[in-house]
Write a structure and sequence with these properties.
Chain lengths: 400, 547
């Protein structure tokens, strides 16, 4: 087995273990039915099992990381697949630290499934071993990217804990603005999952549709779609027979192969919609209402505390990696430490947002629900920077 | 303006003080009536909470408000986000005209974007003002809180007023005959927990982590330094940014170094990954050619110190270097970067003077495309004059030959050929794949005889004194964040009144940690356990889970 194959296998193992861990943690918080056997509640015992599964999964993913490093010949964080996978690993690491500090199962109920979705999402991007372009050939690749991922991973725990808090406390007996937006968050997670399913379905069917178009650099080029084209490239011509396109992608989308990615987003939104309603019809209530049933025994003030603690730890780490290390490297590679590149700007937005979060919390006394909503918005900003800035906005960081 | 408030303990407090700086006695009616004291900023006299008469007061109060501060943070956040909707003018494709680019690419929205000046948002006056306001808010809000807080903590006395003790969140009373011994044991326990202990007449103040109270002010100082560094860049001399295009084999003065340094470019190297590379085979097949290295091999020279103005400088070699992306050449606070390149740029073109009938050649000449000679003597009465030269040739609006730029992308020449047969000369127009005879039929022509190309390296020369200021500012910021967030300021008061021991405890955050310390002291000393008067059921539950 080559190093790449070994690394893929180990990643698959951790993917399965995290899925299993999600289930165990969910069962561990469900409460009464399992309570009180002997001195220790079954919930606590199950929680420990979940934690051990998570640790093994993490070790396996660590194995993926080092085998991949061997195959790459450089630290494996240089394209979207590798970075996103590494981000999920840092999320798990942050969860492990939080679990050791607080011994609480509640955070695991959402952290693990989110990590699962993130790994699945990462796997959709090209997974070949890639060489480094000159701008990336630096020790700062290791230092900058890993610190950013760790910071973002810890901040994601804030989101997971905040979301658990909201699912536990928001009144689900009647529809309101709050239930709508909470349900919207759940829909987004479902849509991400739908995106993964659709991608793998068409990948295994080897679906291909080629267009000829003028790419983002102004050159005549071919663009290969791996999903049927709902949105074709702007002013593109279809080569050969096949479905679509129903309309053209807007011309202002400037990322690398933006129309193809835009088409994928449309598929995800539609697929997410279908999947969401299937789940909803099975549950016969809002997904968040179903979660509330699971989470009713959760210690919500502790969730609030963890959500804040995660920001308190994650914010300076993100600042160090995303602004300080980033600036030092940018000075070396691009001759300037700050250039208002979209990715840089969105890192600064993340910084400002969490700065505002801390002021709201420490000076204005925003706790509980308000603080939890802020942690959700913070995660949206991080995801925006990871996905959208690469997809729509052209910049120095738009690799993959 | 300042009326002092003299507390019954004798301490003089500035106007606006809520709790006496020394003994903690509530000085205002609303604090006296409350069950628990508001301990924020130690109840000290903040200017913003005291005066609001003059316009200066009002401005001060505006900027000292955290609400205003957060609003400014959000406004900056929204502004910089808007700047990423469409590319900034510095990032639009080279050669595109910003006047038309936004409209052509992005339609009406693009036109609006451009009209509002969002295409250079980060340098616009209103954005700079917004940052200035944010900076002002940081400074004012910090001063407004730091000075009174510092005063209050410096003036705090060990013995506190009864009502101060009673209105603390952690409060307990112990009835005992053996007060002195309990205090002795508590002292030992507190020392074990690394508290600083001060005593006055049988009363005790244990304090830990006061420095964490300065965390917010330290991190704000860091941010102010960063903003100042940003402002300093507008001052000449703080920041140099120059571009130098240098052909292989040439030496030039490094711009921005005041003639002190010269650079010779020996060779530009562009390496790409081998398509047959086993390791990266699959991805190279998908991506095509991928660059592996951009490098210029150079020699750096320094001019001699006593160099006479106008005279040819005497160059002393400093070092040979290979400048690569991610590995700039660094010397004397300058950085020279490998920033760009042009491959195979036309450098020299050669021609032969040929007789059209006999095809016989009468000598060869080579035109330096950057510095052409006017006349070329080929001997034996044959010579060629270069009448006109167009480095980047095209026909202008009037249909006349002209040059778009000074870069020899498409060179064209008008030669006058002097031969023994035609002593008055014949005119020939020569361009790539073109050979015209604009003034009638010629007997001779200029035949193309080869071209010499050279690579050109694009260097960026930088000197940036603000770099270190930014860096130091960010480090101070991070230290301040850690200081304020990971430590907390805990205090315990223990006072003896006859057979009664009164205990109170306070922390600025993390009550759980304080309670752990209190429990430790209680166990070691035999003090009665104080109660948390804010404790709710949920906190009860938290303790159960964390224990």
């Amino acid at each position: 087995m080559t190093a790449v194959e070994t690394s893929s296998l180990l990643l698959l193992v951790s993917f399965i273990l995290y899925t299993l861990g999600s289930i165990v943690f969910t069962v561990s918080v469900t409460g009464k039915k399992f309570r009180q056997k002997g001195n220790e509640s079954a919930g606590k015992r199950l929680g420990r099992v979940g934690f051990i599964i998570t640790i093994i999964g993490f070790l396996s993913q660590l194995g993926y990381f080092f085998f991949r490093w061997d195959a790459d010949g450089h630290v494996p964080v240089s394209n979207l697949f590798e970075y996103t996978t590494f981000f999920s690993m840092m999320m798990i690491l942050a969860f492990i630290i939080i679990y050791i500090l607080y011994r609480n199962n509640g955070v695991g109920v959402l952290t693990l499934p989110i990590a699962v979705v993130v790994i699945a999402y990462a796997s959709v991007f090209p997974r070949e071993v890639e060489p480094l372009i000159p701008a990336l050939q630096s020790n700062w690749l290791k230092i900058h990217v890993t610190t950013v991922a760790l910071g973002e991973g810890i901040l994601s725990i804030s989101f997971a804990a905040g979301l658990v808090y909201l699912l536990a406390v928001i009144d689900q007996s009647k529809a309101s603005k709050k239930t709508f937006w909470l349900e919207f968050v759940m829909y987004s997670l479902v849509a991400t999952f739908a995106f993964v399913i659709i991608s793998f379905a068409f990948q295994s069917a080897h679906y291909q549709q080629t267009f000829s178009w003028v790419n983002e650099k102004g050159n005549q080029a071919k663009l290969v779609y791996h999903m049927p084209a709902i949105a074709g490239p702007h002013d593109g011509t279809k080569i050969g027979e096949g479905f679509g396109p129903l309309f053209e992608a807007p011309s202002w989308m400037n990322g690398v192969e933006a129309p193809r990615k835009f088409n994928t987003v449309i598929w995800s939104i539609l697929g997410g919609f279908i999947l969401y309603w299937i789940i909803r019809l099975i549950l016969r209530r809002r997904i968040s209402a179903a979660f509330q049933g699971v989470l009713k025994n959760i210690n919500s003030p502790l969730m609030d505390e963890i959500s804040y603690r995660a920001v308190a730890i994650g914010f300076p780490i993100f600042t160090l990696g995303g602004l300080v290390f980033a600036a030092i490297w940018a000075q070396q590679a691009w001759t300037r430490f700050w250039g208002w590149d979209p990715k840089e700007v969105w890192a600064l937005i993340t910084f400002l947002f969490y700065a505002a979060f801390l002021h709201f919390r420490l000076s204005r006394g925003w706790q509980g629900e308000k603080s939890a909503w802020l942690s959700v918005i913070g995660f949206v900003i991080i995801m925006f920077n990871l996905i959208f800035v690469n997809l729509v906005i052209a910049g120095l960081h738009s690799y993959a | 303006m300042s009326r002092e408030i003299i507390c019954e303990c004798g301490h003089k407090n500035p106007e606006g003080t809520i709790l006496c700086e020394a003994c903690g006695k509530p000085l205002t009616d609303d604090q006296s009536s409350k069950e628990l004291l508001n301990m924020r900023y130690e109840g000290s006299a903040r200017r913003s909470q005291t005066y609001s008469r003059t316009p200066i007061d009002k401005i001060w109060n505006f900027f000292s408000s955290v609400k205003v501060g957060i609003t400014l943070i959000i406004l900056v956040l929204i502004a910089i986000a808007i700047g990423t909707i469409f590319p900034q003018d510095v990032y639009i494709p080279a050669g595109a005209d910003p006047k038309t680019f936004y409209k052509e690419q992005y339609g009406v929205l693009g036109e609006i974007y451009k009209t509002l000046g969002f295409d250079h948002l980060y340098g616009s006056w209103w954005f700079v003002i917004l940052l200035g306001l944010l900076g002002l808010s940081i400074i004012v809000a910090s001063i407004d809180r730091f000075i009174p807080l510092h005063r209050a903590l410096r003036n705090q006395k060990i013995v506190r007023h009864d009502r101060f003790m009673k209105k603390q969140r952690m409060y307990g009373v112990t009835e005992t005959d053996d007060g002195a011994q309990i205090i002795d044991k508590a002292r030992i326990a507190l020392k074990e927990r690394r508290y600083n202990i001060r005593e006055d007449n049988g009363s005790l103040l244990a304090e830990k982590g006061r420095f964490s109270r300065w965390g917010p002010y330290v991190n704000h100082i860091g941010l102010i330094i960063v903003l100042t560094a940003g402002m300093l860049r507008f001052f000449p001399g703080m920041y140099t940014h120059e571009v130098l295009w240098l052909k292989e084999g040439e030496t030039a003065k490094l711009p921005g170094t005041h003639g002190e340094y010269y650079l010779k470019n020996h060779k530009f190297i562009l390496e790409t990954y081998n398509q047959n590379n086993k390791q990266y085979e699959k991805s190279l097949k998908r991506a095509g050619t991928v660059a592996k290295n951009y490098q210029s091999n150079v020699t750096l020279y320094k001019t001699s110190d006593h160099h006479v103005l106008g005279a040819k400088p005497e160059l002393h070699k400093v070092e040979d270097a290979g400048i690569r992306v991610n590995a700039p050449l660094e010397f004397n606070h300058y950085q020279v970067f490998q920033a760009d390149y042009r491959l195979n740029e036309f450098n020299k073109m050669s021609f032969k003077l040929t007789n059209k009938k006999t095809k016989k050649s009468f000598g060869k000449l080579s035109v330096d495309l950057f510095n052409p000679k006017k006349e070329y003597d080929l001997g034996n009465g044959y010579r060629v004059k270069l009448i006109d030269y167009f480095p980047d040739f095209y026909f202008n609006d009037k249909g006349e030959p002209a040059s778009k730029t000074d870069v020899p992308e498409n060179p064209a020449f008008i030669f006058k050929m002097f031969t023994p047969d035609h002593p008055k000369g014949e005119v020939s127009f020569v361009a790539i794949k073109t050979n015209l005879e604009p003034l009638g039929k010629n007997d001779y022509k200029m035949t193309f005889a080869g071209v010499e190309t050279k690579n050109v390296s694009g260097f960026v020369i930088k000197k940036d004194w603000t770099l270190w200021i930014f860096f130091v500012g960010m480090i101070i910021f991070l230290i301040g964040v850690g200081q304020g967030m990971y430590w907390n300021h805990r205090r315990m008061w223990l006072q003896r009144q006859g057979n009664t021991l009164v205990f109170a405890g306070h922390t600025n955050k993390n009550w759980f940690g304080l309670k752990k310390d209190i429990r430790f002291v209680v166990e070691k000393s035999g003090l009665s356990e104080p109660v948390d008067r804010l404790e709710q059921k949920s906190l009860e539950k938290e303790r159960e889970i964390q224990a």
